[in-house]
Amino acid sequence: MFNWARKLWNKRIIARSQITQKQWDHAIGQLELLNRLSSEEKSALQDLATLFVYKKTFVGAHGLKVTKNILLTIALQACLPILKLDIQWYKNWITIVIYPDAFTPKETLVDENGIVHPVRDAMIGQAWLHGPVLLSWPDVKKSGQLDGYNLVLHEFAHKLDMLNGAANGMPPLHKNMDRAKWTQSFSDAYNDFRHKVTNNSATEIDVYAATDPAEFFAVLSELYFEDAKNLNKLYPQVYEQMQLFYRQKTL
């Protein structure tokens, strides 16, 4: 009964949306990333993004005005990973903060000796456990062009990863998925990639993926949607697992 009522409410939200089709078409047309989708999939993505816009709060930092184009550009890309899933995969948090440039979050790190160090490194994106997603608008604008880079996909992959706790490269898997196969596929690929980075071997993947398993999952999620052919060539078993998880064929 609850699911039925929720679906009915979601249909009402979509039907009452004040976003025009012209605005949607403009935003979709800017993203080469969405060209592979059928007309039915684009319509489903638009509905999902409509719910996302309704349920989330978009905040411009440092005087940035959140225009309709900014809002829709982020919403469409954020919802692409859950196109075959459900808006509930983004539950229990509300806010997206958009910065006019790179930003320095107000946080601290504690080292192994218990000494607290303020974080001073500029960032372009960040996802907080049970908290907001932070994005640099100039870097969002660079996303969605099928070059393997996508800040929005990266940070929202972290959000999916965090559904069962701190990000570790293991999002909640579907019932038809084998946890052992996921672990083996990602572990083998991660170890191979770190070996290549350590030995300065040529790699077609951002070296940031070698930081830890969580970043590896997020970077490879970017590739899954932005450059699937390359991901499948380099790590076909990882591609297979991502296809099972996202329930989309990107090749």
What features would you describe in this structure?
The chain is an alpha/beta fold. It folds into 2 domains: 144 residues, Cyclin A, domain 1 (Orthogonal Bundle), CATH 1.10.472; 84 residues, Collagenase (Catalytic Domain) (3-Layer(aba) Sandwich), CATH 3.40.390.10. 48% of the residues lie in helices and 9% in strands. The protein contains 10 helices and 6 strands, in the order H-H-H-E-H-E-E-E-E-E-H-H-H-H-H-H. A hairpin with a 5-residue loop joins strand 3 and strand 4. Helix 9 packs across helix 10. The longest helix has 20 residues. It is globular. The N and C termini lie far apart (37 Å). The mean pLDDT is 93.
Keywords:
single chain, about 250 residues, alpha/beta, Cyclin A, domain 1, Collagenase (Catalytic Domain), 2 domains, 4-stranded mixed β-sheet, two-stranded antiparallel sheet, 10 helices, 6 strands, about 50% helix
